[in-house]
Amino acid sequence: MTPDQLLTFATVAELGNISHAAQALHLSQPAVSGQLRLLQESFGEPLYRRDGRGIRLTAVGEQVAVYANKLRQDYRQAMALRDSLRGLETGALRIGASTTPASYLLPYVIAEFHQRYPAVALHIVDGNTSEIVAQLDRLDVAFIEGAVPPGLSPEIAVRPWRDDEIVAIARADHPLAQHPAGASLQSIAGYPLIMREPGSGVRALVARAFSVSGLEPRVALELAGVESIKEAVRAGMGVGFVSAMSMRHEDAALATVRIDPPHGLKRLLTALVPHADALSRPTERFLAQCFAGDATDPAPMR
């Protein structure tokens, strides 16, 4: 048994597919299969079984995966420490972001960072909030919207970043468009609603607001992504909810409707830093740029 075999097994166990693991590790599939075979031989027990196009861990395999994942986390922390001791002539920065920061805030920050440090390889992962949180162990920094999920590792620093507001959107000829200064949740609830998919920060905030108000929303459609919501609203399928940031450059076909107090849907965009105790220099510089000139205190909350 070697550390490389365990690191490979950790990726296979995570992805549940040998060919996908080979792609993620930049290895050939025979090389991955060879490492798995040697690892199994060292334990004298099968660690996985074929399951359709993927694999399913055996009971022994699940036990081995616990140690393999711990080794991988330690390995990544060692790499982060190594990178922190090196300059920005080389290096990589892995950024995760949920929909709103990925689409409407980070492109400008990332473009400026790349201009300053062109030798740093940038890897960007986007998705909804729950998808990004699930990938934290593979990221240097992540930006999410809405409430910070419970149960995060104490090694992950939580830094409040920007304020955001969720607004309702409707077609310009919709009755709600006549009240751009504000509409109550009760009046909005009377129309068919287009909601983001489960796991979305916007979806969670809107659902919580309806629940607190004792209202039952009429969900006509669920869609993934802000632009899909906008297109469905343009098509006259209902009223949607999006970040106010996403409406900054919209044409007159859509109307933005603020939600009246006391239900004004405000939220915080948050930076999560998985390796805060050993920041690489690219991560350190990127965070400094994100918080430069911002009124939000960049110090970790915990």
UniProtKB/TrEMBL annotation:
UniProt cross-references to PROSITE patterns, sorted A to Z: HTH_LYSR
Output this protein's name: LysR family transcriptional regulator
Write out the coiled-coil annotation as residue ranges: none
- UniProtKB keywords: DNA-binding, Transcription, Transcription regulation
Does this entry carry the keyword DNA-binding?
yes
Q: Which SUPFAM superfamilies match?
A: Periplasmic binding protein-like II, Winged helix' DNA-binding domain
Q: Which domain of life is it from?
A: Bacteria
Task: Answer whether the UniProt record assigns the keyword Transcription to this protein.
Answer: yes
Q: Name any one Pfam family assigned in the record.
A: LysR_substrate
Concerning its family, UniProt says: Belongs to the LysR transcriptional regulatory family.
Lineage of the native species? Bacteria, Pseudomonadati, Pseudomonadota, Betaproteobacteria, Burkholderiales
Q: Where is the HTH lysR-type domain?
A: 1-58
An annotated Gene Ontology molecular function: transcription cis-regulatory region binding
Q: Which residues cross the membrane?
A: none
